[in-house]
Prior knowledge:
The complex is a heterotrimer.
Chain A: H1 9-19, H2 25-40, E1 61-62, H3 77-83, E2 87-88, E3 91-95
Antiparallel strand pairs in A: 2-3
Chain B: H1 9-17, H2 23-38, E1 47-50, H3 54-66, E2 77-81, H4 108-115, E3 119-124, H5 158-165, E4 171-176, H6 182-187, E5 191-194, E6 214-219, H7 222-232, E7 263-267, H8 277-292, E8 296-300, H9 308-323, H10 342-353, H11 356-369, H12 375-398, E9 401-405, H13 421-425, H14 432-437, E10 441-448, E11 454-460, H15 466-478
Parallel strand pairs in B: 2-3, 2-4, 7-8, 7-9
Antiparallel strand pairs in B: 1-3, 4-6, 5-6, 5-10, 9-11, 10-11
Helix pairs in contact in B: 2-3, 7-15, 9-11, 9-12
Chain C: E1 5-17, H1 56-68, E2 72-73, E3 76-77, E4 80-83, E5 93-96, E6 103-112, E7 115-128, E8 132-134, E9 140-144, E10 151-157, H2 164-180, E11 193-205, E12 208-211, E13 215-220, H3 223-244, H4 248-251, E14 254-259, E15 264-267, E16 280-281, E17 288-289, H5 292-299, H6 306-317, H7 321-326, H8 331-343, H9 347-365, H10 376-387, H11 393-406, H12 410-419, H13 425-438, H14 440-447, H15 452-464, H16 471-485
Parallel strand pairs in C: 13-14
Antiparallel strand pairs in C: 1-10, 1-11, 2-6, 3-17, 4-5, 4-16, 6-7, 7-10, 8-9, 11-12, 11-13, 14-15
Helix pairs in contact in C: 2-3, 6-8, 8-9, 8-10, 9-10, 10-11, 13-15, 13-16, 14-15, 15-16
The structure holds magnesium ion and zinc ion.
Amino acid sequence: MPDTERLSDEALDALLFLSRLELSPDERSRLKRQAGEIISHFDSLSRIDTSDAQADHSGAVDAGSLRADEIGPSLPVPAMKRLSGNFLDGYFAVPKIIEGE
Amino acid sequence: MMDATKLPVVEILSLIDDGKLSSEELVKAYRAALEGDRASAKPLNAYVEFFDDAGDLARAADARRKAGERLPLLGVPFAVKDNISIAGRALTCASDILEGYTSPYSATVIERLVAAGAIPVGRTNMDEFAMGSSCEYSRYGATRNPFDRDRTPGGSSGGSAVAVAAGMAAFSLGSETGGSVRLPASFCGLYGLKPSYGRLSRYGLVAFGSSLDQIGICARTAGDAALILSVAAGRDDHDETSADAPVPGARLEALPRGLAGLRVAVPGEFSGIGTDPEVASAFERVISLFEKAGAAVERISFPLLKSCIALYYIIAPAEASSNLARFDGIRYGARVDGGKGLFSLYSVTRDRGFGPEVKRRIVVGNFVLSSGYVDAYYKKALAVRTLLVRELTGLFGRFDLLLSPTSPTPAFRIGEKVDDPVAMYLSDLCTTFANLAGVPALSIPAGATKSGLPIGVQIAGKLFSEPLLLGTAAALRGEGL
Amino acid sequence: MGIERAELIVGCEVHVQLLTKTKAFCACENRYGGIPNTRVCPTCLALPGALPRVNRELLDKSILAGLALNCTVASLTKFDRKNYMYPDLPKGYQISQFDMPICEGGWLDIDVSGTTKRIGIIRLHMEEDAGKNLHIDDRRSYVDFNRCGAPLAEIVSKPDIRSAEEASAYVQGIREVMRFIGVSECNMEEGSLRCDVNVNLHVTEGVGEFATPIAEIKNLNSFRSIRNAIAYEERRQLEEWKGKRVTLQMAGKQTRGWDDDRGVSVLQRTKEEASDYRYFPEPDLKPIVVTSAHVERIRAMLPELPRVMRARFEKDFGLTAYDAQVLTTSSSIAAYFDAAAAKSVDPKKAANWIQTEVLGVLNTQGITVDEFPVPPEDIAKLVDSVQSGINTISMAKDIFSRMINSNMSFDALMATRVQTRNADGSAIAAWVDEVLAANPKVVEDWKRGRKNAALWLMGQVMKKSGGTADAKLANAILERRLQALQ
Lengths: 101, 481, 486
Ligand SMILES: [Mg+2]
Ligand SMILES: [Zn+2]
């Protein structure tokens, strides 16, 4: 399959939505080609037999080792103001949210 | 006065101990080197910021020493990649999207080094969000290689490598996701350590591929790397993936030395794929050094290594697509609000804020995780990764070290691969396996090309075998490397 | 061909906010309300480089909740990232659980119109809450991250629910159990219990059976809205089926919002991709091994659950269903009654006393039963003293208020009274004779074998003495006089 067709326009639109990216037409077509090329290099993996490769969880930790439920410090409000110019009246202001957006 | 800017940490400390050098003088000399370079025709562009108060901090360290205080790194200036948080300092990851952000907290590794007396003197350039192998994808422009200013220093921790190589810091911290410390170290003639996954806390390191990321060390000697690692390593309650593993000795003398009896594997998969002839001959020289010193070198085949690039470029972008979702313009950093509602705030902020390579990886990452593709790509990659870990564990049962060039080529030209992502990705051919398997790997300077470009070789060992790697590197030096 | 049958199918997803001191993945305090954005840190604000750490109580309270719902606890569990971007979700993903939830396969019994029904529970998983978006003015929204990262247990039922009433009873049952075992306050107004319902119809027409598109109605925040939304949706889907005949296979699932004011559900336009959550294992957290010893330690903390307790109260203590219900509204009241009933000769009387007197005091003083100074054993003694005629009701009430105010025990108060007790046999005999003379009918009852009549007469004697008569002596004199009348 030619690399340009690895990603359909609809698929790319969906990915750009998930990525929260809006690209110029030029950038969009370049990205479509390059992403297609990159993806085509992944095909080699399909030839590897992984039927016997169940994830092992040898790195798992014991329940008893988890963080104790003790209150620690939070950030002071002035730190919030330094983070954002949109920290208004104690809140982070954003454009009006329309439910389901 | 002597030129102290190219001295290793261990020597700096003994000069300071003997009163022949002060921390303040050293910082002044680094700053002078930086300013001299800035005035040159093709500045290296290693630092994105050299802290104004670095001299003050050095003077304070000198005063503490005078007052009798003794700490393992008291007064040693170091450079920090611009993706590791330092409280009260800007942090950008070389990205427009973090414009104006100052971290309110320090990375655990920074806290430990500072507690040991070391002085962070500046932030170094990098590929945006550590995505790249050349230090070209940066809002601050490319960093140049001090050995040939038309070439890249390698990436993504290019600025950190150059700061040390060009005499602007005693050592530096970089970050590793697929070779980002080892590659620039090899291009700049330094030791580059990628510690075992979990050896160093990731708290405060801006996440790229969380299951692969580790803070790495650029140093002039293996002994320096050992000292810095011993100070920074160990379990951190802020990072559940940090390991409670014993820390290697701070003193190089304490590390295992000598090459006799070492079992060294040389996988055929890393040679013959466009390997530069000068790299190949430097590599053969290292093999013969090992053999001469009594190590058993065996050429082996390890086919899965060929899949590591594909594996890496699935897993790292998948995790990155999620890790970079927090850069949304809502709570910090740049916000571009076109006044067209929430989605537009997100998408315009991110379109302007991220460079092309970051966007490529976010899109590819979302692709390999999206419904309909997740099984064929992401889950398949996880399964192959499991096989890789299993087979590598087996290999390290039979061998002490895995030896390869760090990169098939010496430093490439600026602009050479910048528009060809796949070619750029192949720079990581020999390095990604260590991140995927979590094992430690060290790039060791191994001579230079006729035109003077440094060449690096890489040794990797089983999990938490840093003492062996560093001791081996020191022994190789003793054998004339 | 007409519709022969349209069966309503409902499944519930209930989010329960867990009562822990700190948030799920950071050490910020987990508390409702307060000044916005004051309980946030690098981790829950998703600052660059910050990492999560699992709160041990998130795990343990989730296990306790799962055990209370008869679930199996996983021996190995892990967290996953659920990716979607929204202003109240700072990381752009929610740490949740995908394929290895902490608990699976349980059930909850509910009572609807006199019969018991078992509702299956598919799973209970751990996750973190989002922040809160406030819509104060027309230009902007405002985000408060105090709630962001609060620990949640999400309980997913099987689609076993067949009516709006069952759904309401199910959610009430979940709330009762969660409150009873102390893992959550389940306060719907404060949002510590939230409910999403999945609703559709299975329509039978001739030989065919068709499923209508599932509507997921999110964030129902009262029992009334749960009932109304399901009832509305049942009607709406039936009408839509008659008109358009669109099946689940054709249209899939849709998300609807519930407009409580207008009493209608409204289709929410969401991009199809928006629900592609791209789950993958959370690389910042390791999988967790839960040993059976750990589970058993938690199981040992599981109290008797309210349904079981009510049945026992009715059977063993003869309580009415209503009384049993009142006495199991909280685990501490239930335990208080249980202890009193165990010591009392008449648990029903103890139940009455607790319901009217004890709960009354708790109410007026605004305290919990744990703060109430009178131990349940003393309530038993008090009630029994009335029963045996040692105290009249009004005397008992007096002792009760003195126990509360003086912090003295029942025995201590009785002992002080004994010191002022009238042990003058002739005076007592006179009171006895007066009582017998004034109550000939009761004396007749006693003669016919009603032993309780003697107790009642004894109470009258004590009353006459103003509580001062030595009860033992009085009882002996009364007994002697009655025997003489025999
Ligand atoms: Mg959920
Ligand atoms: Zn927090």
